[in-house]
């Protein structure tokens, strides 16, 4: 399995901080989620990090054990 | 280098941290510090900062490195809380120690502007028992332009 991590307001929208999903293309993973959540995750202001590294390409394919974090705009310390 | 960068999940004592930092840099002629605390407000009951382990502390460490390379410093201290805090509790402590005061003033100011606008923290406030996420303020980004 792969893991999705939701930060900030995305935690509330997802109803959880983490979600186990079947590995595969991100597009396929998102298609299996609640549409409102999938839409929020596709917002271009939401950055993504694969296994702790920021990536710009959303065409990522998740492998077993991968962690993909969704990072909405930060709100300052 | 002598940088001290920490992400804290429990309350800290700014006076004690500053005492230790200052003691560690006896050759510095000046130490400038900034303390950010949870605003005492009639409505806000609590503040929560959320962080993401793989990014937040590494980002703070990278910032310390940039600050250190930009000004002549003896050391820099960056402490930031994560978790739930009550009004008047410390959130962030930044201090810079240098031979001469101007480097410390500028370094602490720069570090705070970049912490506020770029560090990986998400903030929510509790009002009337209800939590609400805080969106970024345009001012936080405008503050960064001062350094370009």
Automatic annotation (TrEMBL), chain A:
- Alphabetized InterPro entries for the sequence: Beta-grasp_dom_sf, Mopterin_synth/thiamin_S_b, ThiS/MoaD-like
One protein family per Pfam: ThiS
Domain of life, per UniProt, equals Bacteria
The protein here is known as Molybdopterin synthase sulfur carrier subunit
What organism is this sequence from? Novosphingobium arvoryzae
Instruction: Supply the gene name.
Output: moaD
TrEMBL record, chain B:
> What is the superkingdom listed in this entry's lineage?
Bacteria
Classification via Gene3D superfamilies? Molybdopterin biosynthesis MoaE subunit
The pathway noted for it is:
Cofactor biosynthesis; molybdopterin biosynthesis
GO terms for biological process?
Mo-molybdopterin cofactor biosynthetic process
Question: Can you state which reaction this protein catalyses?
Answer: 2 [molybdopterin-synthase sulfur-carrier protein]-C-terminal-Gly-aminoethanethioate + cyclic pyranopterin phosphate + H2O = molybdopterin + 2 [molybdopterin-synthase sulfur-carrier protein]-C-terminal Gly-Gly + 2 H(+)
What is its biological role? Converts molybdopterin precursor Z into molybdopterin. This requires the incorporation of two sulfur atoms into precursor Z to generate a dithiolene group. The sulfur is provided by MoaD.
Q: How does it assemble?
A: Heterotetramer of 2 MoaD subunits and 2 MoaE subunits. Also stable as homodimer. The enzyme changes between these two forms during catalysis.
Keywords, ordered alphabetically: Molybdenum cofactor biosynthesis
Provide the family line.
Answer: Belongs to the MoaE family.
Keyword Plastid on entry? no
Q: What is this protein called?
A: Molybdopterin synthase catalytic subunit
Which InterPro entries does the protein's record reference?
MoaE_sf, Mopterin_biosynth_MoaE
* EC number annotated for this UniProt entry: 2.8.1.12
For the keyword Cell inner membrane, the answer is no
One example GO MF annotation:
molybdopterin synthase activity
